[in-house]
Amino acid sequence: MAIHNDGVTITDRPIEQVREQAIDQLIMSYGHGVISAEAFERRLDEATNTDSHQRLVELVADLSLEPDNAYQQQRQQSFMPRYQSAGTARHERITSILSSSHRNGQWLVPEELSVLAVLGSVTLDFSDATFTTQQVTINIANWVSDVTLYVPEHVNVVLQMTDILASTDNTAPSMGGRQGPTLVVTGHAALASLSVEVKCTMKEKFVAFANQVRQSLKS
């Protein structure tokens, strides 16, 4: 089935909208067993990399299944940022002196986070985190330490660090747009390193979500 154009010429539509619709059709078809895992990953790989409207249309031209309401709800839970009321904890401190500190899993991100790392390491993993506000300020004092931030692709990152014989590396694509949270990272680092990385790429998330949809249809 051709991708809906809603009366607009396909090449005049935003490419990301067309890509999203094509990927949804691929996931639905794989979930229902219409295409094999090999075919799904091959088409998904091309869909996530092509900038051709026509090629996206061709990739799903032979597929008839379209996302239903249950799929849309499941997709929103998996890909949209999670927000929750902050309660009273709007500011938290993490101190790591001659030690290591980790935050991961489904933790609640405060509006402001202060990090002190001295001869230690700090890892903040936002992959499954729940945000209390759309903008989070992270103040870092990093002395002879390693600080690592893992972020999903829907989170934007703004770095405002001062480095003294230190390194700051941001490889996150920051594709969150207006709905995604923004991490504003400020502070200073001396003889230290700060890295911002994506723990799981969007393609890997699509594959995991597709397997989740397939499993839910079997149960």
TrEMBL record:
Domain Cell wall-active antibiotics response LiaF-like C-terminal per the UniProt entry, residue ranges: 104-168
Pfam families, sorted: LiaF-like_C
Domain of life: Bacteria
Name of protein: Cell wall-active antibiotics response LiaF-like C-terminal domain-containing protein
